[in-house]
Amino acid sequence: MYTLTYESVATGKIIGSEMEELLQKARANNLREDITGCLIYYKGGFVQLLEGEKDKIVALYEKIKMDPRHNNVSLFSDDEISKRTFPNWGMAYYPIDENNTNKYEYEQFKRNLILLSDLIEPTNVTSKQFWKKIKTMISEPPII
Ligand SMILES: Cc1cc2nc3c(=O)[nH]c(=O)nc-3n(C[C@H](O)[C@H](O)[C@H](O)COP(=O)(O)O)c2cc1C
Fold this sequence. Notes:
This protein has helices at 16-33, 54-65, 103-119, 125-138, and strands spanning 2-10, 36-42, 45-52, 70-80, 92-96. By secondary structure, the chain is α+β, with helices and mostly antiparallel strands. The structure holds flavin mononucleotide (FMN). Flavin mononucleotide (FMN) binds next to α1, β3 and α2. It comes from marine sediment metagenome.
């Protein structure tokens, strides 16, 4: 098995219904292809981890790179693996959007994500890199 993680920049402001459509499609495809992973949306950017059979992941990544809903897609880690990090998640999705939630919910959400990163045991370098990226991202001070 194989895993990769990349980051990208959303092309425009992605609204809730567009994201729902994307996720619905992604989850149906991933279920069929036995692909699992996690997608984070934060401050106009995506970070995604994908895992599954290598040829399927490579093919999906090629497709994702061409998607006009984001650009600057850049791979920052990949690995051959024997165990999945997100075995039960067709595509877990975490939108961290300051504009859609109040300050308290927003902080709570970030805390939950950090908690989750401590609970999920990283069994390979790529998933370690994925969580490291998430943690760095959400602990950045807000832009004033
Ligand atoms: C940030 C981002 C993450 C995506 N993740 C997935 C995914 O995990 N699985 C998937 O099938 N498509 C994903 N897509 C959508 C693909 O780029 C593509 O639109 C979709 O796979 C097309 O499916 P189809 O060939 O069945 O029409 C993602 C798109 C974006 C912008």
